[in-house]
């Protein structure tokens, strides 16, 4: 088969690669694969543990070519998660599957014509894509699952107000999810004009942080002086995170969604945490229950993901896709093998 292989920092080579085997699970012919920020970091040599040569890509959907799993037939349209917890350890059993250290993973990435899914992943996460759902929409179940875990961890309730800081792909997914989950008001702080325009089209009130006005003062103006119930910082910038902690309403939650380097230290107001009872939390990844809910929402059109797909490239143009995905000018870039 052909694959886009990461062979070194900044280098992707379109080359012949051994066909994967279905093993005890499924072999898919990949129809679409999302380009994620994790793929971009790995491509630039900035992702710990992802060493070349390897095939990137973990957001995928495809058609079954071989099946060793009852209930899945050749020709089925299928998507699945790239990992799942072991289901037996303390973390899995205490509702923190995303932190499991014994996860089952794909054997290789999906920037390729084919990908195999081990039976443990098939049984826990694989789902059949309805005919009225596109390949690209199905691909977004994994990033949507990450947003589901994040918003759930914020003790989200219908009727609350969300402020989102950073309207990239994951930020826009959080906008869509909060709207589907009954947000009464969604505030978005984003410096890029095109992203603010899309956030407005999706029903948000928008703010330009470059304009000089204080974002916390603005957020209180939009919420009768109280502040938003939930603030999600969907940017990997420590100064931005620090600047929005005081925006939350008393008793509210601030979520660090964007990843920061391991040695990053934050300066947090003790008054805000103790006397205003604001919680500062974070999540990373998803649980099987989140992925399954994401698949159900996409299959039943509970969220409209089409506006978030900004570009499509053939597999041999993987380098161009990664370059675009790393720019402000895009949301979700897709490879279409």
Key attributes of the depicted protein:
Quinone Oxidoreductase, Chain A, domain 1, Rossmann fold, 12 helices, alpha/beta, 24% strand, 2 domains, 337 residues
Instruction: State the secondary-structure class.
Output: alpha/beta
Uncertain parts:
none
Report the CATH C-level class of the largest domain.
Answer: Alpha Beta
Just name the CATH architecture of the largest domain: Alpha-Beta Complex
Query: What coarse outline follows from CA principal-axis ratios?
Result: globular
- Going by CATH, what is the homologous superfamily of the largest domain? Medium-chain alcohol dehydrogenases, catalytic domain
Helix content: 25-40%
The end-to-end span amounts to 11 Å
How many DSSP helices?
12
- What do the pLDDT scores average to? 96
* Number of separate structural domains: 2
The tally of strands reads 18
- The helix/strand order is EEEHEEEEHEEHEHHEHEHEHEHEHEHEHE
CATH topology of the largest domain: Quinone Oxidoreductase, Chain A, domain 1
Largest sheet: 7 strands, mixed
What is the alpha-carbon Rg in Å? Answer: 20 Å
Strand content: 15-25%
């Amino acid at each position: 088969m052909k694959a886009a292989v990461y062979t070194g920092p900044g280098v992707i080579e379109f080359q012949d690669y051994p066909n994967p085997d279905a093993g005890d699970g499924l072999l898919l012919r990949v129809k679409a694969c999302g380009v994620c920020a994790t793929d971009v970091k790995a491509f630039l040599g900035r992702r710990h543990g992802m060493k070349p040569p390897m095939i990137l890509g973990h957001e995928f959907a495809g058609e079954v070519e071989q099946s060793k799993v009852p209930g899945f037939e050749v020709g089925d349209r299928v998507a699945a998660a790239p990992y799942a917890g072991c289901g037996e350890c303390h973390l899995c059993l205490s509702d923190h599957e995303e932190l499991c250290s014994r996860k089952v993973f794909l054997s290789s990435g999906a920037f390729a014509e084919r990908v195999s899914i081990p039976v443990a992943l098939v049984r826990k996460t694989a789902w059949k894509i309805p005919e009225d759902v596109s390949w690209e929409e199905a691909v977004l179940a994994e990033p949507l699952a990450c947003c589901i875990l994040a918003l759930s961890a914020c003790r989200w309730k219908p009727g609350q107000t969300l402020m989102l800081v950073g309207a990239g792909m994951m930020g826009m997914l959080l906008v869509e999810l909060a709207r589907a989950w009954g947000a009464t008001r969604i505030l978005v702080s984003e410096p890029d004009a095109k992203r603010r325009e899309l956030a407005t089209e999706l029903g948000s009130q928008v703010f330009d942080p470059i304009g000089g006005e204080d974002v916390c003062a603005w957020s209180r103006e939009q919420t009768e002086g109280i502040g938003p119930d939930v603030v999600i910082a969907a940017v990997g910038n420590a100064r931005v995170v620090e600047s929005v902690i005081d925006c939350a309403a008393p008793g509210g939650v601030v979520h660090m969604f964007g990843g920061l380097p391991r040695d990053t230290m934050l300066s947090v107001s003790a008054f805000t945490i103790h006397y205003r009872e604001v919680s500062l939390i974070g999540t990373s990844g998803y649980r099987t229950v989140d992925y399954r809910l994401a698949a159900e929402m996409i299959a039943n059109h509970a969220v409209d993901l089409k506006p978030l797909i900004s570009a499509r490239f053939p597999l041999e143009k993987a380098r161009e896709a990664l370059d675009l995905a790393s720019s402000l000018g895009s949301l979700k870039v897709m490879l279409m093998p």
